[in-house]
Amino acid sequence: MSYEYILVDPQFKTHIALVRLNRPKELNALNLQLMLEMKQALHDLDEDENVRCIIITGNEQAFAAGADIKQMESRTPIDLLKIDQFETWDQIRKTKKPIIAAVSGFALGGGCELAMTCDMIVASETAKFGQPEIKIGIMPGAGGTQRLTRAVGKALAMEMVLTGKFISAEEALRSGLINKVVPEEVYLDEAVKLAKEVCQMSPVATRLAKESVNKAFESGLQEGLFFERKNFYMCFSSNDQKEGMKAFVEKRIPDFKGN
């Protein structure tokens, strides 16, 4: 289907889909329509058996510079409750296939939260991350206080959230927020390279492994270990497990089918 505020290429590369935020004049600010389109696109890509990894990106100037403030300015708590905009964010979180954020320029407010909702982040040297909501009298509402704190620790998260401070790509890398920093001209290429590595693995094992890593952020150690063990056992019901171990013994590259 066609979209107004995002561009979707389900066959960007072999087994890799690309979702590009497409509001360049607004620095890809996240309005309600864009997020609904994102929800639908990710649902469809998750159901597409040809897709094994998804990349979300913006452009060189901005991944997403935040939420659309003009759309939010006059809202009441009841308006926000009825709109239930965070249900869209829950869909992103529930996407089974790995998602890589390819970030250049500004990733602020909702843009930073969107990047953190992805599973991995590749950033250009020009990327800047921040949660500046405090400067307009509000606070992060799509996971900024929770995912940021888990990624970079309490001290830096508190400074970013309470002062609106931006951090550079290099500082984000040192703090554990992102996976790698590369020159601006190759940031999308590097995200594709990472996605290709993921796509070489068993789609079944990849899905179960992603679930297990995410569980570590949502549970205590014992519950997480139990969940990991269950998913480990599940891998042995797949043909990919049989193929992977057989290929190892035979000293060849496995041919994973995703079943």
Summarize the structure.
The chain is of the alpha/beta class and 259 residues long. 47% of the residues lie in helices and 17% in strands.
Overall shape: globular
End-to-end Cα distance: 27 Å
Number of domains: 2
Rg: 19 Å
Main attributes of the structure:
259 residues, alpha/beta, 2-enoyl-CoA Hydratase, Chain A, domain 1, Lyase 2-enoyl-coa Hydratase, Chain  A, domain 2, four-stranded mixed beta sheet, 10 strands
Outline the structure in words.
Helix 1 packs parallel to helix 4 (86-94), helix 6 (144-152) packs antiparallel against helix 7 and helix 10 packs antiparallel against helix 11 (221-235). The protein folds into 2 domains: 6-199, 2-enoyl-CoA Hydratase, Chain A, domain 1; 203-249, Lyase 2-enoyl-coa Hydratase, Chain  A, domain 2 (Orthogonal Bundle), CATH 1.10.12. Strand 2, helix 1 (32-47) and strand 3 form a beta-alpha-beta unit. The protein has 12 helices and 10 strands. The protein has helices at 32-47, 69-72, 77-83, 86-94, 110-117, 144-152, 154-163, 169-175, 187-199, 203-215, 221-235, 239-249, and strands at 6-13, 16-21, 53-57, 62-64, 99-103, 106-108, 120-124, 128-130, 166-168, 180-182.
SSE layout and pairing:
Elements: E1 6-13, E2 16-21, H1 32-47, E3 53-57, E4 62-64, H2 69-72, H3 77-83, H4 86-94, E5 99-103, E6 106-108, H5 110-117, E7 120-124, E8 128-130, H6 144-152, H7 154-163, E9 166-168, H8 169-175, E10 180-182, H9 187-199, H10 203-215, H11 221-235, H12 239-249
Parallel strand pairs: 2-3, 3-5, 4-6, 5-7, 6-8, 7-10
Antiparallel strand pairs: 1-2, 8-9
Helix pairs in contact: 1-4, 6-7, 10-11
